[in-house]
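Example S7 (structure tokens).
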């Protein structure tokens, strides 16, 4: 009960992936600092799995599955994904009607940092 009502303070070292910075982290900063005025954030940005303890980080925000069982993960959001194409691409290569008809189409994909493989559609 000694910490009941105590406000956290001090430095919080945080690593986050670039896309998540723009969509989740930065929009929430004003409310975070209003609620926790004595926290000093030290943020780095990378798209690789980091070794939290060895690199001196307190936490990280990532998408996907956690590769290391020694860490604790909490789901903070579900992200919707969309597959899109320009009208010119669709005119040239045709409009897919289902997932199976995407075979053979070109795509810009997300490479999973946990495995290095492209994320399947």
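Recovered sequence:
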């Amino acid at each position: 009960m000694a910490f009941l009502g105590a406000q956290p303070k001090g430095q919080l070292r945080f690593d986050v992936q670039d896309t998540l910075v723009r969509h989740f982290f930065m929009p929430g900063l004003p409310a975070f600092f209003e609620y926790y005025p004595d926290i000093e954030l030290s943020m780095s940005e990378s798209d690789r799995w980091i070794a939290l303890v060895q690199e001196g980080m307190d936490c990280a925000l990532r998408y996907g599955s956690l590769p290391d069982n020694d860490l604790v993960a909490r789901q903070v959001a579900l992200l919707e994904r969309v597959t899109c194409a320009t009208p010119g691409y669709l005119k040239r290569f045709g409009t897919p009607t289902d997932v199976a008809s995407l075979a053979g189409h070109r795509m810009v994909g997300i490479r999973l940092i946990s495995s290095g493989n492209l994320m399947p559609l």
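Notes on this example. Residues 3 and 18 are 34 Å apart (CA to CA).
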